[in-house]
Structures are given as C-alpha cells and as structure tokens.
C-alpha cells in the first residue's frame, strides 16, 4: 500500500516529536512492504511567521489531498499577544472543522511497565487503566455562535455559546456506542445536565441513540463528578463520550494516570475523508528545543493512523509492541522517569523504538 501523509509539525516540540514519529512510520512501512509519501504543510505559529495566517489555504488543500494527516502541536508564548482571530490554535480548530473531524478518540492506557510513573496509588491502578475518551470535536463552545465581546452595564463582558444540535450529538454517541460494543460494552456519557440546557438535550439524545445498542450499558455522569471519579476509581470507566470542552479537560486529566500527557495519542475522524492523528498534548514551550520531549504520544498516534486510517492492524501492533519493549527495558524520557531505568531524550527514545521494530 502507498500511504500519502500530510505532516504538520507546527510549533514548540512539534517538529521534534514528528521527526521521530515519521522515522517510525517509515520503518514499519518498509518492514511490511508499504511505501510512504510525505508532504509537509505549515500550521499554527510556524504558518503565522511564514505567511501571516495559522491555516494557509495550501495547508487545507494538502490535508484534503492526503490519505491521513499527522500533526505535532501548535501555539506558544510567542503568539499569545497576537490578534485572537489569527492565533495558532485557530489553525488547529480550522483544520478540524475543514476536514469535518467531529470524532476525537483519546485512549488513556496505562502501560503496566509505567505503573510506577502513574500519579495514582498502586492499589487504585491495580487493574491497570484502559479508557477510551470519545470527545466531540467540532461543536460546543469552541465553535458556537454568537461569541465575542460586548459591553454590559458600562463594563467589558465576553461570551461564547455552547450549542449542539441533535444530529451532532447523535453521530458522536453512535461512534462511542460502536467503540464500546467492541470493548467492555460500557458507555458513560458525561454532561452537566443538572445545569445546562445543552447538556439536557445531550442526555436525551444519548439515551435515544444508545437504545439502538442494547448490548452497550449506558450510564450518565455529571462532569464535575466524572473528574473526581477518574482519580478515585478509573477502572469503573470503559468508554466515555462527552462534548468538546469537557473532553479536552477530562482527557488531560486521564493522561496523568498513565504517567504523563506525553503518552497519549489521538485520532480525529469525520465521515470519510482524511483523518488527523496527533498527541493530545500541546507544544510544551517550556521544554521545546532541548530534545527532551516524550515522542511516544506521537509515535502511538502513528499506530492509531495505521489502524484507523489504513486498517493495517499488524503494522499498528508492531509499533505498540516496540513501545512496550522499550519501556520494559527501562528507557524513560524525563516526564515518565521516576528514578529507575535510564533517562533518555526525545531523539534517543525515537531511535530506541525504531530499533525495537
Ligand atoms: N493539539 C495542540 O496542538 C495543543 C494542545 C494543547 C495545547 N496546545 C498549545 O500549546 C501551548 C502550551 O500549552 P500548555 O502548556 O497548556 O500545554 P502542553 O500540553 O503544551 O504542556 C503542559 C505540560 O506538559 C508537558 N508536556 C507536554 N507534552 C509533553 C511531552 N511530549 N513530553 C514531555 N512533557 C510534555 C509540558 O512540558 C508542560 O509542562 C499553548 O499555546 C496551547 O494552546 C496545543
Ligand atoms: C490547542 C487547543 C485548541 C486544543 C483543544 O482545546 O482542542 C488542545 O488543547 C487539544 O487538546 O487538542
Ligand atoms: Mg487539550
């Protein structure tokens, strides 16, 4: 198979981690007799600096022409004071919208080898952790209109609109039900239906949609309780489905149970068309340019790409196994190093995974 991949390294640690992930992709492809064709496109701060726009038309075109997209991360303090209309993050939100990527899968899996790096007590993570967070990605407060600034009683006020239509809720709940069906058959829909109208509709549509999946046990949880339960007893969760902003927050929270946000990959998909794969973390400006970032979330995003965009299960499993091997040998980037094994940098970690394939 020939795989046409659009690479968007972006900002901060983005180029460092994408470089490692691409090497891994190329090695796996070669080993299994595939070819990879890559094209690199500008996004985020890097695009602002070059062409004055976080999402150039050429980038959208390159993504649409590819079979799949691999993104590093966008943003950083350099662009924090910029006109909000052209912030780096607008580039990421824009490409998600342009490709119709409403479904964001964020698996939070604790590698048993990393149990000591988890921030939870051993008795709590005893059974390990394997949660799939299904985050709605193109709706809610991120995109809702109206939004903006106004003046209320003589002072500045700002507002956003958290809005979901029935069809938007239904399609993401359907994705989550299909995933739950292939896993532990438990789906927890997270909302704030005790306060928000949008959450009450979310819950109603979730119940109606999940009724078509009698083999999937649907439960509901308020988001504040969910944030607490994730830490108190994460093993109660199988698949979580939630709206855009809640999913953003809960997935960062879930990541730390696995040791580090540097471990969590993600897949963003729509209905056909190229999907986008990226770590859930950001551009980590505090460690950028030092070759110390953890590239594993991006490498595992390549594994998700092979599995979900190309149906290449063996190839994806080869990456997962290589990561496991490297962790079992005790190699750790700084974020998952807890005093045992050998601390390595970003490119060294990439090379170790490469060797294990
Ligand atoms: N998908 C994305 O592109 C994305 C996601 C989140 C944040 N951002 C942007 O990134 C910038 C920084 O945001 P932030 O600091 O809130 O979040 P962040 O995820 O970039 O960093 C949070 C903390 O986690 C650490 N970290 C993150 N990834 C790591 C890795 N691979 N290895 C080791 N440590 C890692 C960082 O060093 C930092 O201490 C902002 O501009 C933000 O908007 C982008
Ligand atoms: C950078 C930002 C727009 C983005 C989001 O909020 O979706 C990030 O936090 C993420 O999790 O991918
Ligand atoms: Mg986030």
UniProtKB/TrEMBL annotation:
Mg(2+) binds at residues 224, 248, 252. It holds the Pfam family Iso_dh. The keyword Cell division does not apply. The record marks 142, 192 as: Important for catalysis. Keywords: Amino-acid biosynthesis, Branched-chain amino acid biosynthesis, Cytoplasm, Leucine biosynthesis, Magnesium, Manganese, Metal-binding, NAD, Oxidoreductase. NAD(+) binds at residues 76-89, 282-294. Residues 4-353 form the Isopropylmalate dehydrogenase-like domain. Signal peptide: none annotated. HAMAP family: LeuB_type1. Belongs to the isocitrate and isopropylmalate dehydrogenases family. LeuB type 1 subfamily. This is 3-isopropylmalate dehydrogenase.
């Amino acid at each position: 198979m020939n795989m046409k991949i659009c690479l968007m390294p972006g900002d901060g640690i983005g180029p460092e981690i994408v470089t490692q992930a691409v090497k891994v992709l190329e090695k796996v492809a070669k080993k299994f007799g595939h070819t990879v064709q890559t094209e690199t496109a500008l996004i985020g701060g890097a695009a602002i600096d070059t062409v004055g726009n976080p999402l150039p038309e050429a980038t959208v075109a390159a993504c649409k022409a590819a079979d799949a997209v691999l993104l590093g991360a966008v943003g950083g303090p350099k662009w924090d004071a910029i006109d909000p209309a052209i912030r780096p993050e607008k580039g990421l939100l824009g490409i998600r919208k342009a490709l119709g990527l409403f479904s964001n899968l964020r698996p939070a899996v604790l590698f048993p080898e990393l149990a000591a790096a988890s921030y939870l007590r051993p008795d709590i993570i005893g059974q390990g952790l394997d949660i799939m967070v299904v985050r709605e990605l193109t709706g809610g407060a991120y995109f809702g209109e109206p939004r903006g600034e106004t003046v209320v009683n003589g002072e500045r006020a700002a507002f956003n609109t958290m809005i979901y239509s029935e069809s938007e809720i239904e399609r993401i709940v359907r994705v989550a039900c299909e995933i739950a069906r292939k896993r532990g058959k438990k789906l927890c829909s997270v909302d704030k239906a005790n306060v928000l109208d949008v959450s009450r509709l979310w819950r109603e549509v979730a119940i109606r949609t999940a009724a078509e999946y009698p083999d999937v046990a649907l439960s509901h949880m308020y988001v504040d309780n969910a944030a607490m339960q994730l830490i108190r007893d994460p093993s109660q969760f199988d698949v979580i489905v939630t709206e855009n902003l809640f999913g953003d927050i809960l997935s960062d929270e879930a990541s730390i149970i696995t040791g580090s946000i540097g471990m969590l990959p993600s897949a963003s998909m729509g209905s056909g068309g190229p999907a986008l794969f990226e770590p859930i973390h950001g551009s980590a400006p505090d460690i950028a340019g030092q070759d110390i970032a953890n590239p594993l979330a991006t490498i595992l995003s390549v594994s998700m790409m092979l599995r979900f965009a190309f149906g290449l299960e063996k190839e994806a499993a080869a990456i997962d196994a290589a990561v496991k091997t490297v962790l079992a040998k005790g190699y750790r980037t700084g974020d998952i190093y807890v005093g045992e094994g050998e601390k390595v940098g970003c490119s060294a970690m990439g090379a170790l995974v490469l060797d294990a394939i």
